[in-house]
Design a protein that fits this description.
The complex is a heterodimer of chains A (285) and B (88). Chain A has 285 residues and is α/β, with parallel strands linked by helices. Chain A contains nine helices and nine strands. Chain B has one domain. Helices cover 43% and strands 19% of the residues of chain B. Chain B has a three-stranded antiparallel β-sheet with strand order 1-2-3, covered by helices on one side. Classes of the chains: A alpha/beta (285), B alpha+beta (88). Chains A and B meet through loops of A and strand 1 and strand 2 of B.
């Protein structure tokens, strides 16, 4: 993203009455102007949230470390120990040590071979915020990315429920990103996950991502569905409305063929990630 | 004989198979419809690109109705779907 587009993005954030600039990528910290872009946002008195894998340069790390914790949130997408990436994990630990007050640990789950216990080890070792964000890797419409297929949700759901049981007694909060569906969890964990599920089942909606060329998309998985060019009057609520209008057509089904028959459909669950729902439509003729 | 025998799904029309029916959407005019069985069975057989004779035979067998009833039903449904811009 060039300077002009970035400035326009900040204008849009201010115009929309938002208080936070969220920088994501790819890996935003590797952008050559990352530091100056963060400074620009801070000058406008915006809070900063950086979505990062933590593999940032020492210069960027030192820069982020001097930002007051209240102004900066780092959502650190952790490398799972199964990934056999000791150098990456070692670097992430340095980030955790240096930016501890700003860090929220997270993981994007794309495989069923995922145990989450290592997150609590990090929380204790680096005295981090007692909160972890769990995300599911959703498929882009072209399916050209690594994602967790909905048929595997129940395997992951069982693991998350077990994890939640363990961390609850330690006072650690578990937050869900978009696309979680209640039926992925064992029914006996519904009470335990009550708070998370209240939001989870209905949380697939446009979040508005801005691409480097200044066009806006509903979210990363729906990158190919619709793009809207930002102009000087457009605000977040207007963009959300336009994307919601586009997505309305896909509200009648869920990610599974049996969603419509589920008593939770359209009450406690909107049917899961739109990208998967859209991919269920075909035209064979 | 089925009078509206040509079944070709329009370019911007897509469908998803559900346990209780078929969801059809037209992304051009943003119109959508949910059809339940037995109509959904007719849609799916026709979408299978079989010959007309085979389609009639399949629907007759699946719905356990007579050949004449099948032809009448297919005829009516295709007229409706054409009017709704789902098929050409």
């Amino acid at each position: 993203m060039d300077d002009l587009t970035y400035d326009r993005a900040l204008d849009y954030i201010e115009r929309s009455g938002l208080k936070q600039a969220r920088l994501l990528g790819g890996e935003p910290t590797t952008h050559p102007k990352f530091i100056s872009y963060v400074q620009k946002a801070l000058e406008r008195n915006l809070d900063i949230m950086v979505f990062t894998n933590g593999l940032m340069s020492q210069k960027v790390l030192n820069f982020l470390a001097q930002i007051p914790a209240g102004k900066l949130s780092i959502l650190l997408n952790t490398i799972h120990p199964n990934e056999n990436n000791p150098r990456g994990i070692s670097r992430q630990k340095q980030i955790m040590a240096k930016l501890a007050p700003s860090i929220i640990l997270g993981i994007t789950i794309y495989s069923t071979i995922v145990d989450l216990e290592y997150l609590t080890v990090y929380l204790n070792e680096f005295n981090l915020k007692k909160e972890v964000r769990l995300g599911l890797a959703h498929s882009v419409l072209s399916q050209q990315n690594r994602f967790l297929h909905p048929k595997n949700y129940s395997i992951v759901g069982r693991k998350i429920a077990r994890f939640k049981e363990e961390v609850d007694v330690k006072g650690i909060k578990v937050g869900f990103d978009c696309g979680f569906v209640p039926c992925m969890f064992p029914p006996d964990s519904f009470e335990l996950l009550h708070e998370e599920l209240k939001k989870a089942g209905n949380c697939c909606h446009p979040i508005i991502d801005m691409l480097s060329d200044g066009t806006c998309i509903s979210c990363y998985p729906l990158n190919d569905l619709k793009k809207i060019k930002l102009h000087s009057q457009l605000t977040a609520p207007e963009l959300i409305e336009q994307f919601e209008k586009e997505l309305r057509l896909y509200n009648e089904i869920g990610i599974y063929p049996y969603c419509r028959s589920c008593p939770l459909f359209k009450t406690r669950c909107n049917g899961g990630c739109y990208s998967f729902r859209i991919q269920r439509y075909q035209n064979q003729t | 004989m089925v009078t509206n025998c040509r079944f070709r799904i329009r370019k911007n029309v897509h469908y998803a198979i559900e346990t209780t029916g078929v969801s059809i959407i037209n992304t051009e005019n943003k119109h959508g419809k949910y059809i339940t069985y037995p109509e959904a069975a007719v849609w799916l057989v026709l979408a299978g690109n079989h010959s007309l004779t085979r389609s009639i035979r399949l629907v007759t067998f699946i719905l356990q109705i007579s050949k004449n009833e099948t032809i009448k039903m297919m005829d009516q449904l295709m007229t409706d779907w054409r009017l709704e811009s789902f098929i050409e």
